[in-house]
Amino acid sequence: MAANTTVFMTPEESGRVQTTVRDLLRKRRDQRGQKWTTHDPISLIQEATSASLLQDLSSAAFGLGAASKQSQDTIVAYGIGTPYLPSTAKLQDLVPMKLSDLCMETHHRGYVLSLRRVSPVVEMKSSSWAVFQGDSQNEVERLEVFLHTSQNGQNTLNLGFEFLVKEPYYTLNNHGQRTIRIDHPSDLVISTHNNDPESWRRRDRTEGLQRDCTPVECKELGNTAIYDKNYAMALAHYTEGLRVLMMQGDDSSSSLKHDLYRNRSHVNLILECYDNAIADALESLTRGEDGSQKDLDAKAYFRAGTAAYRLSNFRDAKDYFNEQLRLLPGNKIASTYLERIEVREHEMSDGVHDKDKALRSLSKTKRRLDAADFVRRTKVKRSSVCGKGLFATEDIEPNDIIMCEKAFCVVWGNEDEAFSALTSDVRDDAAIRVFPAGLHQAVVQKLMKNPSQIEKVLDLFGDYEGLGKKPCERDGFPVIDTFQIHDIVQRNAFGIGQQSEDEDHRNASTGLWIRASYINHSCIGNAKKELVGDLMVIRATRKILAGEEIMHSYDETSDYDSRMKALHLAWGFHCSCRLCTVEAQDSPALRKKRLMLEKDADLFIERTKPAGAGIIPVSRAKRLRRSIEETYNEKRYKNLPRRALVGIEQWLQAAGCR
Question: Coil, helix or strand for 343?
């Protein structure tokens, strides 16, 4: 993580956080197996209603997150509990259960719970919760969706009022309240969609998505929802129309079927569900020869091409836009896309990106470049250092581009999705880390929307193996283990550095670059990275031979002890490169002396400008350099970087001294 994600805590503060997490674990263990007990429905619903009204005034709360507006002094905090697998069962294979069957600290494997929402949704920064009713009005319970709270751009709990919970997990939330907890999005299924945020007040269950609508009515309702920009409901209506058509098995309705698929493709494109946008567009093709049919098919090919382009599947996108041009010769939009694809193909082939043009296109609100990856000079394979690594497939000269890669997912500090969290991980003795929670959410969302991208993310290193490396799908939806993605993000996310004045540790910019994540660490690596928007450019710092592993430094800290601590906390390893091996041989007293001298040099640099510096400050700088040099054994440090000297050396060079 970048330096701007640093949070300074006293030992007492970190101790309180860790004690809170450990106490909660003890309470959960103590209550394991206890039977569900009734709540006062009125009191619980009133609690949710009041919390919903006051949520904008709420401050950051440990475990539950924070309201949408945080104060300058707060950061969202939560504990990382023991991971558990998402349900991989089919709904039809699960046995119905009741609220009264719930047992504390239990994953009810093999069962499904049917619930109706009877309160407003309380939306916090890292979770959402509401009150749900079972078979009778007197059976109610809190249900909390943790972190991954949205679906198709809306809060999941607001999208419906009847839900199915697959293999429910009943536990204590981080305030010690009993709750049905949802960590994995696929464990919560909307059985009845909702178009009215006040539907929870009604006793009847007739509102929302009507199951007795005809396909034509579903199409009209979907079109109305698009007009209202309620894309989640539009998607639900078109899907329901197709379901009814399929049940009817009426071949005479093929025109209507094509319309429903075509319209749903449009909605999927808006919602960034590109896999489904392509599939629906291709299903909508009439393959007719009259003018109107060609126009409709051209529209479908445009949507398929746009979706493929946004997935960086430029070859497929090229085919789709060529089909659009065949049906509509001279179409300017298709021609423009084909020109852009030609540029992307050159970028993939030779790695030459128009950097000046890219920089001109960037702004505070537009930082994602229209660019392609250049990776042909590299190969992923097993590494003797750790797991998999990235290797050169040809000789690469110093300062040459090794690879360029667009971010798989990036969250900029000025975006609403950006937020960092203070996490305490029970798997690592409640170790406290600053974690890019907003990036975690964004990666899970992208994978849920585009299952074709899952496998390449799962191939990255993470401590928790979860469901393994192969994608899993049930009931037509991808199953994502969010604990597994958490660990992948924690070990592979890149801090981007401060991008704007209003960015700090609470909303740091972070991203995930798939190919670059395979580059292993060395304090004396052979590569360096730079960013142009969300395009990462990796260059060689020396000549790299074909077959040699590409490595760069994860942490540039000059002090050995601080660097070892940071590497272990953030990435879980101790470095044993040549530099670290030599530094470890220095006595602790010598390393401490070097660190103090470097701090003196940093203070001097901060207070003294090199431009126009006179004899006295230059002499002072040279004495500092000499004192730091004396802490390095000339023989042992031969041909090794001496990081503590970097700052004062740069100052002397700027002052015109050697």
Answer: helix
For residues 489 and 591, membership in a common domain is answered with no
Choose among 206, 50, 25, 230: nearest CA to 131.
Answer: 50
Count of domains observed in the chain: 4
Q: List pLDDT tens digits, range 106-137.
A: 999 999 999 999 999 999 889 999 999 999 88
Which parts of 228-331 fold into alpha helices (H)? 231-248, 254-270, 274-283, 291-310, 314-327
* Cα-to-chain-centroid distance, residue 605: 38
Q: How far apart are alpha carbons 107 and 625 in whole angstroms?
A: 62
Could you read off the pLDDT of 538-574 as tens digits, one per residue? 999 999 999 999 999 998 889 999 999 988 888 888 8
Regarding whether 341 and 294 lie in a shared domain, the answer is yes
Q: Are 497 and 533 in contact (CB under 8 A)?
A: no
* Residue 313 and residue 197 share a domain: no
**Residue, of 223 and 212, whose pLDDT is higher:** 223
**Domain assignment present for 608:** yes
Q: What is the DSSP letter of 396?
A: B
Range of the domain at 543: 358-440+480-558+567-573
Cα 67–Cα 53–Cα 60 angle in degrees, nearest 5: 20
Residue 253: the pLDDT is 64
Reported as type and span, the H/E element at residue 449 is helix 437-449
- Please tell me the distance from the alpha carbon of residue 167 to that of residue 95, in angstroms, as a whole number: 9
pLDDT score of 428: 84
Contact 341, 309 (CB under 8 A): yes
Residue 233 lies in a domain: no
Q: What does the pLDDT average to over 511-526?
A: 95
CA dihedral 438, 440, 446, 449 (to 10 degrees): -100
The mean pLDDT of the chain is 90
Pair (622, 484) in one structural domain? no
Whether pLDDT at 7 is above 70:
no
Q: Would 85 be classed as within a structural domain?
A: yes
Mean pLDDT of 512-518: 97
Q: How far is CA 561 from CA 1, 10, 568, 634, in A?
A: 18, 19, 11, 21
Q: C-alpha 111: how far from its chain's center?
A: 30
Domain membership of residue 183 (yes or no) is: yes
pLDDT tens sequence across 285-335: 999 999 999 999 999 999 999 999 999 999 999 999 999 999 999 999 999
Residues 157 and 290 in one domain: no
392 three-state secondary structure: strand
What is the Cα Rg of the chain in Å? 28
What span, in angstroms and rounded, lies between the C-alpha atoms of 467 and 469?
Answer: 7
- Rounded to an integer, what distance in angstroms lies between the CA atom of residue 232 and that of residue 193? 9
Q: How far is the C-alpha of 68 from the C-alpha of 445, rounded, in Å? A: 19
Distance CA 474, CA 485 (A): 18
Can you give the pLDDT at residue 207?
47
Query: What pLDDT score was predicted for residue 582?
Result: 94
Same domain, 510 and 645: no
